[in-house]
Specification:
about 220 residues; 5-stranded mixed sheet; about 15% helix
């Protein structure tokens, strides 16, 4: 599961890791600075539209007109390509969330200890996402969800689900409108980073309040 993450690096950091040049997308060295991204907020999302890459602020959540519950924020990678809810998004709305890490909570005594999970070499992460295009619409609950995968090895001790993080060299093919749904499923299976690519540490419980922001939220720290 992914219910909170961090997107604090700059466009330059994310785009350079993907090999995206300034002629493709506007560069900006200013950090985005979001250390505590919560659902139901707009998140910078990378997609392809009319054959060009776009980086739009998009609502994190998906609730079509017939859905009478809270918008969903995640989709299981094992079933997203074939299920009623997400199949159309998988076919026509693949996207990427550039990020620096995500948070999970583990029960600790009477409370829960949050952890920040990130690339062990400090590299940007690229979460596979699917949503309802076009992503430049102003107001809609039909935004996007983050695709998740099962956790194995030591990470399962933190949570049994995690974002599906693609390798940088798989991102463009995942986004391409020329990529078939079947090929996208192969990318999700074969080009996802393994658990061994990540590390994690405990962080302050202040991350549980969506109004809190700042680099202290991703720094090592036990429950307060």
């Amino acid at each position: 599961m992914c219910g909170r993450f961090a997107q604090y690096s700059s466009r330059d950091d994310y785009f350079e890791a993907l090999g995206i040049g300034p002629e493709e997308l506007t560069r900006d060295s200013e950090p985005i600075g979001r250390y505590n991204v919560a659902p139901a907020t707009k998140v910078l999302l990378l997609s392809e539209r009319d054959g060009e890459l776009k980086f739009d602020p998009v609502y994190w959540g998906y609730g079509p007109e017939w859905w009478d519950k809270q918008p969903l924020i995640n989709a299981r990678g094992e079933t997203a390509a074939s299920g009623r809810m997400f199949k159309p998004l998988w076919e026509h709305g693949r996207a990427i969330v550039p990020a620096d890490g995500w948070f999970e909570w583990q029960r600790s005594g009477a409370g829960k200890q949050p952890y920040f999970i990130y690339h062990r070499e400090g590299q940007p992460l690229f979460f596979a996402a699917i949503g309802k295009p076009p992503f430049d619409r102003e107001h809609s609950r039909e935004g996007f969800v983050i695709v998740t995968a099962a956790s194995n090895q030591g990470m399962v001790d933190i949570h049994d689900r995690r974002p599906l993080v693609l390798t940088a060299d798989a991102v463009r093919e995942w986004l391409s409108n020329e990529t078939s749904p079947a090929r996208a499923a192969e990318i999700a299976r074969d080009s996802a980073l393994p658990e061994s690519a990540f590390t994690w540490h405990p962080v302050t419980t202040k991350v549980g309040n969506v109004h809190n922001q700042g680099p202290e939220l991703v720094q090592t720290g036990d429950s307060d």
